[in-house]
Specification:
With 72 residues, the protein is mostly helical. The chain is 86% helix and 0% strand.
Length: 72
């Protein structure tokens, strides 16, 4: 009788431990995928030719305006 009660308690503890281990493994996997994604996003985003042309035009206008204000 005493052994039956102890065995039931141990099986319950085993089940809880298995659930906790599974939860921790899921958490570890999600952190690894987030970490990999963050590493891929490091640095500056590259610009395509169209974006570069737009920036170039804006900067030319910006500096032309600055030169105009400076000459006054």
């Amino acid at each position: 009788m005493e052994f039956d009660k102890t065995i039931k308690q141990l099986r319950l503890m085993k089940e809880k431990l298995q659930q906790a281990i599974a939860a921790l493994e899921d958490l570890m996997e999600s952190q690894n995928t987030v970490g990999r994604a963050a590493m891929k996003r490091r640095g500056r985003k590259g610009m395509g030719p169209e974006e570069r042309l737009e920036v170039s035009k804006r900067m030319k206008q910006y500096w032309a305006k600055r030169r105009k204000l400076r000459s006054k």
